[in-house]
Specification:
The chain is an all-alpha fold. It contains 18 helices and no strands. The model has no long low-confidence stretch (mean pLDDT 86).
């Protein structure tokens, strides 16, 4: 007998889904894809400073880089992490309502996600975030009985402190000297561009992950960064602000008018300072981290309110564009990593565009691929109840394979 049979718990059907969450996840995944395409091939990871400067010298590339950094960098992953916290609380409520053993099943669910994340990082996408999300998910699970104030204030503190803590631990580790300088030297970067085999590419990045991510303590800061956003998401879900969005549209309009303009203005200034775009803003250079850290959550909230409000105007285009991708968020996230690797590397069957194309071309490829993901996800979900990895995740969590083919109620 499976755990699902013993506890009465079962995977969520499409009738129980919160439509706004699927659309928001799809929107966040588009932003994550575009950010990865602009930051991953950049200096000093996969291109030298001189190469990247040459690639971004063209007006179209410079504008594209600015737009992606301004509109999506740090905002897309903030929204994605926030939605994880919302989903945690929604699932907990549903399992408890069914009388299910939420605690045991959710620990298993996080364990399966951790395994998927590790496999993804080692074999497909070196910047995987799923493993970190699983670790932060265990911490959120431990905080499931925390009060509203703890979730909100603690979440805000951790979300804002995560990146500074990461930077501090990295400097404290001493890895800014010999070992890391060697890993990011011009010779090492050029060698990565000429990687001819999967093994050489991924073994090199496994070494970099060990140096920077683990030994350098960066994972601690990003753990706080993710957990803080999870806690805020759990707080919002506990209040029912997403689940009852249709009843709260006036509040969404108010916060849209407050957060979106402030976030856009603040992030415009922070991006201009980071990319040294407008010399007139140079006197604000020392304030760049403060402006950025304050503007990111404002813009993320603005996006959330905007998407929810458009969703409730019965904008079918938004549901068709983002909803299917969001319903298969796990599968689509992993597939996006594979797409980026195949686009950049030249080991078979990759295109090997690394170092040859700039942000404008990469973003154009990303937008085209996202449209393809939308079409494929829509077709897949017309036949099946779950995405491929979603099905595996649920089967291993509940100890029983859910029905894959669509049926009544699915």
């Amino acid at each position: 007998m499976s755990d699902a049979d013993r506890t009465g718990a079962a995977p969520v059907t499409s009738r129980e889904r919160v439509g706004e969450l699927d659309v928001l996840r799809g929107f966040a995944l588009l932003g994550v894809l575009l950010v990865h395409l602009v930051t991953w091939p950049a200096a000093p990871v996969l291109a030298t400073d001189a190469e990247w400067a040459a690639l971004t010298a063209a007006p179209a590339d410079a504008i594209t880089q600015f737009l992606v950094n301004w509109l999506f960098y740090d905002k897309a992953n903030t929204l994605f992490a926030f939605l994880f916290g919302v989903g945690f609380w929604v699932q907990m409520q549903r399992m408890r309502a069914r009388g299910g053993d939420f605690e045991r099943l959710y620990v298993r669910r996080l364990t399966v996600l951790l395994v998927i994340g590790v496999i993804n990082m080692l074999a497909i996408w070196q910047w995987d975030i799923l493993g970190l999300y699983a670790l932060a998910g265990f911490a959120l699970f431990a905080l499931r009985g925390a009060g509203d104030r703890t979730l909100l204030i603690g979440g805000l503190v951790l979300a804002l402190a995560g990146r500074p803590v990461s930077d501090y631990l990295f400097e404290l580790s001493g890895l800014t000297t010999a070992s890391l300088d060697l890993a990011f030297s011009e010779a090492e970067i050029l060698a990565r561009q000429e990687t001819a085999t999967w093994w050489s590419a991924y073994s090199d990045f496994a070494r970099l992950n060990w140096l920077e991510w683990l030994t350098g303590g960066v994972i601690v800061g990003w753990f706080f960064y993710a957990l803080g956003r999870f806690m805020i998401g759990a707080y919002v879900a506990r209040k029912g602000w997403i689940q009852r969005a249709g009843e709260l549209l006036p509040r969404y309009r108010f916060w849209l008018l407050v957060c979106l303009p402030l976030g856009l203005i603040g992030e415009f200034v922070a991006t201009a300072l980071s990319l040294e775009t407008f010399s007139a803003l140079e006197p604000l250079h020392d304030w760049k981290p403060v402006i950025h850290f304050a503007s990111v959550p404002l813009l993320a909230v603005g996006y959330l309110c905007l998407v929810v409000l458009i969703y409730h105007t019965r904008a079918s285009w938004m549901v068709r564009l983002f909803g299917p991708v969001g319903r298969m968020a796990l599968t689509n996230y992993v597939v996006q990593g594979a797409f980026i690797s195949l686009l950049l590397y030249d080991f078979w069957p990759g295109l090997g565009l690394l170092g040859d194309v700039g942000p404008a071309t990469l973003v154009a490829c990303g937008l085209g691929f996202f449209v393809l993901q939308t079409v494929v996800s829509q077709l897949w979900l017309s036949l099946f109840a779950y995405g491929p990895l979603e099905w595996v995740w649920r089967a291993l969590t509940y100890g029983k394979a859910p029905r894959m083919l669509r049926a009544g109620g699915q």
